[in-house]
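# step 3/5: fold
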Amino acid sequence: MNPFPILLISHDYSFENGVFFEIPKFCKTNFNHKCKAHYDEIQNNQGFKVCPYGFTSYVYDTNGAKTISTCLNVKGISDSKQLNKIEKSTENYPQFSKIQIENITRNYVLLLGSYLVEKNKNIENNDKIKKAVFQHNVITVTLHELRKLNQQIKLQSEVLQSEVAKITCKGEQCKKYDYVDRAFNIFSTSQLISTRLNAYDFIVNPSLTEAHKKKTVVVFKKFQKAIHCLKLSAEQKQIKIELHGSSVYELSSFKIFELLPFMLFENALKYSPVNNDIVCVFFRDHTIEIRNLGPKPSEKNINVLFDQGKRSDVVSKIEGSGLGLYLSKLICEKHEINISLSIGENIQLIDGVEYADFIVTLKLKT
């Protein structure tokens, strides 16, 4: 469950894949005495160190023991010239900043420590058992979501490289906006990985989230960013996420607020049929409405969709965790936002299943 690949010296210098990335093929096939000497040298230290082939290793403490995250591409630390040579003959390896690596690792250590404490307790009453199981399930499900985000990073990176490779014209402005747009997608998605980790803290230990200072954000821009980030996922289903209206409404928010529009749009994408657009409207009264075509839940069922682990009784064949709307409501409550669900009158029958307009309404504090 380590976020990045690790090297296990005690297990005959064996590698273990990380949650986000697998060990590069190059490292698997070219591990030699130089690599062993590198890990022997750094195993008792702490911090970042470049390996003989340009990758970065990061040594940190995990519950009193040293852990070596390795095969990292860290901006300003890794040897970019060596990695560029490797990437031409093997796979692309996404780049992170030093701060991103440290923040992701820090959150992982905190979550692992919290989980191990709960696991090792001799819990005898049902309430404590349910809490420990819930926390474990949240970690498992969210790590799955992180893998999906990372897949978007890889996909966007591949598209960017492909588009740049096709450029034959000369001049500074040539195809500039095409590949800048893709680059922004990559940046936005990597930022959302950190946001997801903040969501861990919010669920497992809400007081940790509140310990951070609030920051004033323009809500409309956060929705724009989420749409931009999910552009390729939407294109794969031939769906457009349309944004209507505009707003300069500013909200004093915690870091986890950025997760809200992403989760709502991702939920809409998941349940929308192919070639059915999603519409988000910002109204002048500071109301936001997200509307998509989805399997029609019963009136009884719609009232429990905000509950932990609850899903509509008609979506059993679609992969899901029942956490998206639950987390969305928690985030809204922390920011004094009223969130509600409703079903529109547009009813369609698709493959024998009733579909209807699924409407999420957010009312910002005025």
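# step 4/5: annotate
Residues 1-94 form one domain.
# step 5/5: archive (pending)
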